[in-house]
Amino acid sequence: MSSASTASKLAQLRVKTDQELCQIIDNELESALNSREPQRIRAERAYAEAVKLLPKVDDLRERRRLNNKLVRVRESLERQSTAGDLHVSAACS
User: Fold this and answer.
1) Which stretch of DSSP H or E encloses residue 35?
2) What does 38-62 look like in DSSP terms, one character per residue?
């Protein structure tokens, strides 16, 4: 196999791997966005996993898209946390 052919195959593999990585991150973030209180721990784990994987995405457009979704997940988790705190405060009053 020639060097050019090998390089082409490696480039194709990298593109496919990057697409699959983006899909994994996207699925994790969707799962987190759709989680409610009983699954909050799952959502937090999905968020943490996405934070770790996101820097490995080479496609800047995809990275920005996924980062925007990551921000939405963080905001959602913060809202759930605030709502949970209010609920506990009301119950204790």
Assistant:
1) none
2) GGHHHHHHHHHHHHHHGGG---HHH
- 30 close to 65: Cβ distance less than 8 angstroms: no
Single-letter amino acid code for the residue at 62: E
3-class DSSP assignment, residue 93: coil
What is the Cα–Cα distance from 23 to 67, expressed in whole angstroms? 13
Q: Where are the domains of the chain?
A: 3-92
pLDDT digits (tens, 9 = 90+) for 1-36: 588 888 899 989 989 999 999 999 999 888 888 876
Rg (CA), the chain: 19
**pTM for this entry:** 0.67
Q: How many secondary structure helices (H) and strands (E) does the chain include?
A: 3, 0
CA–CA separation, 86 vs 37, rounded Å? Answer: 14
The DSSP code for 42 is H
